[in-house]
Design a protein that fits this description.
Shape: globular
Number of strands: 4
Strand content: 5-15%
Distance between the termini: 34 Å
Helix content: 40-55%
Radius of gyration: 13 Å
Largest sheet: 2 strands, antiparallel
């Protein structure tokens, strides 16, 4: 599996879902663990979203959000073999599920 952006990047100006910009909306989120690592350095943080990803989050369209994230990852990192794309999609689905479970407020505009 290629190393890539799967979780929020502190202080970044990119969407934490698909890595595009600019950031349009922020979501408060309590900390959680993915791949045995905490997502934030504190007990809470914010998750940034571009306008399109914010629309998908707000409408709870998680399937299309994951598809978008996979597509943008492949565009940024080059062609991804099918077996890696399947694993990437699974990982992103897990991260998005954890985000849903730990989101504390609807959004910060």
């Amino acid at each position: 599996m290629r190393v890539g952006h799967l979780v929020p990047t502190p202080g970044g100006n990119d969407c934490d879902f698909c890595t595009s910009g600019p950031v349009f909306k922020l979501y408060e989120c309590s900390n959680f663990v993915f791949n045995n690592l905490p997502i934030f350095q504190k007990d809470f943080g914010v998750w940034a979203a571009c306008a399109r990803c914010a629309e998908l989050v707000d409408s709870e369209n998680w399937t299309d959000l994951t598809k978008r994230a996979v597509r943008k990852f492949a565009k940024r990192h080059g062609p991804i073999p099918r077996y890696e794309a399947v694993r990437l999609r699974e990982q992103l689905q897990q991260v998005h599920q954890l985000f849903r479970e730990h989101r504390t407020k609807p959004s910060i505009n």
